[in-house]
Write a structure and sequence with these properties.
- One of its GO terms (biological process) is purine nucleobase catabolic process.
- The protein is an alpha/beta fold.
- It has helices at about 40-50, 85-95, 115-125, 145-150, 175-185, 205-210, 215-220, 225-235, 255-270, 285-290, 310-320, 360-370, 375-385; strands at about 5-15, 20-25, 35-40, 55, 60-65, 65-70, 95-100, 130-135, 135, 155-160, 190-195, 245-250, 280-285, 330, 405-415, 435-445, 445-450, 455.
- The chain is about 30% helix and about 20% strand.
- The chain is globular, with a radius of gyration of 22 Å.
Length: about 475
């Protein structure tokens, strides 16, 4: 995809990780950022080109890099009643996201072999409104497939340390992790973890089964913080034996963050040169926006794993994020069909739909805490791009990077209603909630893909894979 010519994007508030400036972003004919200009330089360029350069003036709207959401479950092929590439990426574009990275499950087949990746890429090709990267999966017995997937261009691999909820993606044990780490050593790739490990005892399960399953606290008690602590202990036991980068997805319990920080410090002290010592962690919009006390009885659209915990835990997560002990904020968009979200919280599917609203969810909370717009660039753009190894193309407004840009009104508010939701299934805990910050326009490599409520024309997104055979 290429632009039609050079363009100059103007804004009185160009937002980067380091600050906010008044000026312009010059984009070349290939949709790459050529240079950042001051307002004076931009006006001079316009005068010198005498109408030969297209000017896109955002005025008072903030201009920011497109969001990179590195944790999205698209579910195509195989579970396209849950979600699909067209609907997920349309929702992403409307939410100011210009790159998503698809998780290896809950599609059928899962992305655990090169052939399965080709099947998924075939489904995605020509159907993505934003750029799409792919995670590979680590399951029992697929260690011999991992290097082929690295060569094909997956951003990394995800595994589960507890049952995933779908039979085709079984969880791994310590012996499987040893094989996976050995296969990935020296590749530069990373292994991401759904970090919950169940206790051997089933006494907790017996107690839970006697309680009301429609009460959210029943589900919350079934997945205590100890499960996350157990998982971090297991992951940490490998860190002095491998240089493979590790990443913990969807941190829910704040209690694990000091352990992760300690592991990171030890790895850095040992000489590991990877970003953040090769030990990173994300949290999600639902953990930073919601708390257990708010969740009504029998409303499983709030159910996810690990679970949303109490208000005190939420505030601790914010504290750790702002201390840079957590690295990024992502959606973990994990939709399903409505009948799977029954009132029984123990039986309902666990997953929250939110990809379209992540930017506004984050800004609603961040702005009340005195953060400025640079926090969006840091936690939702630059850090996820760095994690996925696409920082030379995505995640910032810098010369040489893709001109993935958004115009954002940080002061406007809107209410989430079913009719504005673009992802396939509309059930979400955010229905009826008023959020701050409205995406007005989204550009992918300099081309307009979303404007004021409408996705523009046909899909223009690329698949972020290395192999031309996929």
């Amino acid at each position: 995809m290429t632009s039609t010519g050079r363009q100059l994007f103007l804004s009185k508030r160009i937002v980067t990780e380091t600050g906010v400036t008044d000026g312009g972003v010059l984009v070349n004919e290939n949709g790459l950022i050529e240079k950042l200009l001051s307002r004076k330089q931009a006006e001079q360029l316009i005068e010198e080109n005498n109408g030969d350069i297209a000017v896109v003036d955002g005025g008072e709207l903030a201009m920011m890099p497109g969001v990179v959401d590195s944790h999205v479950h698209v579910n195509e092929p195989g579970r396209t009643a849950w979600e699909g590439f067209r609907t997920a990426t349309s929702a992403a574009a409307a939410g100011g996201i210009t790159t998503i990275v698809d998780m290896p499950l809950n599609s059928i087949p899962p992305t655990t072999t090169l052939e399965n990746l080709k099947i998924k890429a075939s489904s995605a090709k020509g159907n993505v409104f934003v750029d799409v990267g792919f995670w590979g999966g680590v399951i029992v017995g697929n260690e011999d497939s991992l290097r082929d997937l690295v060569e094909a261009g997956v951003v990394g691999f995800k595994c589960f340390l507890c049952p995933s909820g779908v039979d085709e993606f079984p969880n791994v044990q310590a012996e499987d992790l040893e094989k996976a780490f050995a296969a990935l050593e020296g590749t530069g790739s990373l292994l991401a973890f759904h970090a919950e490990v169940e206790d051997d005892t089933n006494e907790c399960d017996k107690k839970i089964l006697k309680k009301d399953p429609e009460e959210y606290t029943t589900y919350l008690e079934s997945r205590p913080p100890k499960m996350e602590l157990n998982a971090i202990s297991l992951i940490s036991s490998f860190l002095d034996k491998t240089d493979v980068r590790v990443h913990v997805v969807h941190v829910s319990s704040a209690s694990v963050v000091p352990l992760l920080n300690k592991a990171r410090e030890e790895r850095v002290a040992s000489g590991n040169k990877a970003w953040r010592g090769g030990v990173t962690a994300e949290t999600c919009h639902h953990y930073l926006s919601l708390s257990a006390e708010q969740i009504p009885r029998g409303r499983s659209e709030y159910k996810c794993a690990p679970p949303i915990r109490d208000m005190d835990n939420k505030e601790k997560l914010w504290k750790y994020l702002l201390e840079d002990k957590l690295d990024m904020v992502v959606s973990d968009h994990s939709p399903c069909t409505p009948e799977l979200k029954c009132s029984n919280n123990l039986e309902a599917w666990g997953g929250i739909s939110s990809v379209q609203f992540g930017l506004s969810l984050f800004w609603t909370e961040a702005s009340t805490r005195g953060l400025d717009l640079t926090s969006i660039c840091k936690y939702m753009c630059a850090a996820p791009a760095q994690l996925c190894g696409i920082q030379d193309h995505k995640g910032a407004i810098k010369p040489g990077l893709d001109a993935d840009l958004i115009f954002f009104d940080p002061d406007a508010e809107f209410t989430v209603t079913a009719d504005i939701i673009r992802h396939k299934n509309k059930l979400t805990p955010y229905i009826g909630k008023t959020l701050k910050g409205v995406v007005k326009k989204t550009y992918l490599r300099g081309q307009l893909i979303y404007a004021d409520g409408d996705v523009i024309e046909e899909p223009k997104g690329n698949l972020l894979l290395k192999s031309c055979d996929i």
